[in-house]
Amino acid sequence: MKDTKQEFLFDKVNYKILLIGIGVIALGFILMSGGGSDDPNVFNEDIFNFRRIRLAPTTVLIGFGITIYSILKSPKKD
């Protein structure tokens, strides 16, 4: 009977970087939320502030970049 060790596709470091990237993406979507008005007849100008127009999408794109890096990062050779 052969002893085969279960081997993961990525290293432990790749998974940590992947979780960080997912966290950054989630932070970007949290920054994007809100700004609505309780009264549908009143327009709320807060929807066009810096946080929702520039910061949140940039944060999401950085998060996607981190996750792509974690996938493409080659594992260490033993």
Structure commentary:
- With about 80 residues, the chain is mostly helical.
- The chain has helices at about 10-30, 50-70.
- It is elongated, with a radius of gyration of 20 Å.
- The model has no long low-confidence stretch (mean pLDDT about 90).
- It contains two helices and no strands.
Shape: elongated
What is the H/E order? HH
What is the count of β-strands? 0
Question: Over the alpha carbons, how many angstroms does the gyration radius reach?
Answer: 20 Å
Are there runs of 5+ residues with pLDDT below 50, and where?
A: none
Specify the helix fraction band.
Answer: 55-70%
> If you average the pLDDT, what whole number results?
88
Number of helices: 2
Biggest sheet architecture: none
Task: Tell me the span between the first and last alpha carbons.
Answer: 25 Å
Portion in strands: under 5%
Structural class: mainly alpha
Mind sketching the topology for me?
Layout: H1 12-32, H2 50-72
Helix pairs in contact: 1-2
Question: What attributes characterize this protein structure?
Answer:
78 residues; mainly alpha
In short:
This protein has 78 residues and is an all-alpha fold.
